[in-house]
Write a structure and sequence with these properties.
The protein is of the alpha+beta class. 27% of the residues lie in helices and 30% in strands. It has four helices and seven strands, in the order βααβββαβαββ. A seven-stranded mixed beta sheet has the order 1-2-3-4-5-7-6.
Length: 161
């Protein structure tokens, strides 16, 4: 059985990440170009999981410019074949243990009310970090999405480290 390896993504991963996200509803898809930029511009704050050279997981994130100690997690995706093995939590923990992460004291993400898997993941992460988890509305269904997308709740975990 091949092990899952965690790596820093590069431009060669962009298209396969796009396909992985497209195969993982209800996640919002980005353009391939966006995924390519994530792999180049945000490679230090993103992570890819590969099994036999094939992507089976990806976390994209970036440091929030006006919140220097806050890592924002844009998207977490795990392929159907790799689910149920704790891979998403493993990727997040690995990301927070990287060298640049010593400055990270908070993690933020947004989650829709119905995304039970993401709620469970980030609650587990907060517990793993022995950190507080706070929730507020980030983007309202009517105000920000004109009724076309569910409300996104801001999840803030920290301080930690």
């Amino acid at each position: 059985m091949d092990e899952i390896e965690l790596q820093i993504p590069d431009s060669l991963d962009g298209s396969s990440i796009n396909q992985l996200v497209a195969q993982s509803p209800p996640l919002d898809t980005n353009s391939t170009y966006c995924n390519l930029l994530q792999c180049i511009h945000f490679s230090d704050t993103s992570i890819i999981a590969k099994k036999s050279g094939k992507p089976v997981g990806f976390v994209s994130g970036y440091m929030i410019p006006r919140k220097a100690c806050t890592l924002f997690i844009w998207q977490v995706v795990v392929s159907a074949e790799a689910r149920g093995q704790g891979l998403a939590l493993r990727m997040l923990c690995e990301l927070l243990q990287r060298g640049h992460s010593e400055e990270v004291r908070f993690l933020e993400t947004t989650i829709t009310k119905e995304n039970e898997a993401s709620w469970a993941l980030f609650r587990k992460l907060a517990k793993e970090l022995s950190a507080k988890l706070e929730v507020s509305v980030a983007f309202d269904k009517e105000t920000h999405f004109f009724g076309e997308h569910e409300t996104e709740h801001l999840v803030r975990i920290g301080p930690f480290n």
